[in-house]
Each structure stands twice: as C-alpha cells, then as structure tokens.
Design goal:
Order of helices and strands: HHHHH
Structural class: mainly alpha
Radius of gyration: 18 Å
Number of helices: 5
Number of strands: 0
Distance between the termini: 16 Å
Helix content: over 70%
Shape: elongated
Largest sheet: none
Length: 143
C-alpha cells in the first residue's frame, strides 16, 4: 500500500460513514416504530383486548425486516460491500411489501395500516438513497 492510498483511506471511510448517516437514521427510526408497535400490541393484549393473529404476524415480520435493514445499513456504513448489496435488494422489497399490504382492503385495521404506511415511508428513503450512484461509489468493484 502506498502512502497516498494509506492517507486517503481514513478520508474515504469518513465520507462513507457520513453518506450513510441518514440511511442508518431512517433504518433506526423504522426499527423504533416497529418495536413500538409490538410493545403497543403486547400492552393491549395484556389488558385483555384480543389482537388478531394476522396483526401479530405482520407486525413481527416488519420488526424482523427492520432489524435486518439496520444491520445491513450499519454494515454498509462500516464498509461492507455485501451489506450494501443486501440493503440495495431488501429495502425496495420491504417498500413494495408494505404498499401491497396497506392497499389490501379490510386485511388490517386502519390504525395498523397507518403504522405500516409510516414504516414504508421510513424505508422509502433508504431504498432510494442506497441505490444512488454517489452511494455506490463508496463500494467500487474489485478487479
């Protein structure tokens, strides 16, 4: 490694971390909203209110996808090309899944649909920003 490349590496790492800061922020917010929904469901279930199994399943899947997205975003921010590729693939899939679920009439109560829509709106910028060429520039293909 030449001295020039050794001295530019910390600058490139800092630039990548800076570029991923909003992506990690949106992924963190997505996780927070998803976890809050599970906590809310647990709270109302503890008071004796019946919560439909479809709501539990859907919200648990969303929480799981939120955890994965945050893990991928954090890994990409640290420089993992494979984490960046996973984030590029999974985040648009999550957005499409949310759109489909929210658009099915009568599948979920309106209050759950609103929470799911908020989650989708938090993942949308992750999907868009992760696929921008300026983000991809932080992960050059190796020869």
């Amino acid at each position: 490694m030449t001295q020039t490349s050794a001295s530019t590496r910390p600058a490139a790492d800092a630039a990548r971390r800076t570029a991923f800061r909003p992506i990690v922020g949106f992924a963190t917010a997505f996780l927070a909203v998803s976890a809050a929904m599970i906590a809310f469901l647990a709270g109302i279930a503890a008071t004796g209110t019946a919560v439909d199994t479809a709501i539990w399943i859907r919200c648990s899947l969303v929480l799981g996808s939120a955890v994965l997205l945050l893990v991928f975003a954090a890994g990409a921010a640290r420089g993992s090309r494979s984490a960046w590729v996973r984030l590029r693939i999974v985040s648009p899939i999550v957005v499409v899944a949310v759109i489909v679920i929210v658009s099915i009439p009568g599948f979920l109560p309106d209050w759950v649909r609103v929470e799911q829509a908020v989650c989708g709106l938090l993942v949308l910028p992750v999907a868009v920003m992760t696929n921008l060429p300026r983000i991809g520039g932080h992960f050059p293909r190796e020869a």
